[in-house]
Design brief:
alpha/beta; 5 helices; 5 strands; 31% helix
Length: 160
């Protein structure tokens, strides 16, 4: 498949070089851009889940990560208060409408770079991309190998 985005192309070329143990593609030492924009859906869901657990005090209920929960990624419980939460994560520019999630949990966490609905209730929390970037920088050792590899391509990041 043709890849038109320069960062995605460089990442694909780097993976090719790595897997074939070659230097067929000459790559720049670092790329400028936003790593959060390029994460695959599973990587972004992992990142948001780790962020909610480490930075916000929630624990993911593993059995809630199922295909039949299409409206959200997972159910969480706050480790101290026991309050329930759900998280919905979308890649790219997909807008989110929190009204579809009303009443499903005490708290709702949303992440997208595609915009949000207006008039969200107070229990709906938008996760700022800057918070995720800061979390990634401060918690490199917790990130998956794929997330660390992505970070290795961006200026200013020093993967562990």
């Amino acid at each position: 498949q043709r890849v038109s985005d320069p960062m995605a192309l460089a990442y694909s070329q780097a993976l090719y070089n790595e897997r074939t143990e070659s230097t067929r593609y000459q790559l720049p030492p670092r790329l400028e851009g936003d790593v959060v924009d390029l994460l695959q859906p599973d990587d972004l869901e992992d990142l948001v889940g780790m962020y909610l657990q480490v930075a916000r005090g929630y624990l993911i209920v593993p059995s809630s990560c199922k295909v039949d929960t299409a409206g959200y990624e997972y159910i969480l419980r706050h480790r101290e208060s026991g309050r329930s939460a759900i998280a919905q994560v979308k890649t790219g520019r997909v807008p989110l409408d929190s009204k579809a999630l009303e009443g499903l949990a005490d708290e709702v966490f949303l992440f997208t770079q595609g915009g949000y609905s207006e008039g969200e209730p107070p229990n709906v929390h938008r996760i700022d991309p800057d918070e995720l970037r800061t979390f990634m920088r401060e918690n490199l050792k917790l990130l998956t190998p794929r997330l660390r590899r992505w970070l290795g391509f961006f200026a200013g990041w020093r993967p562990a």
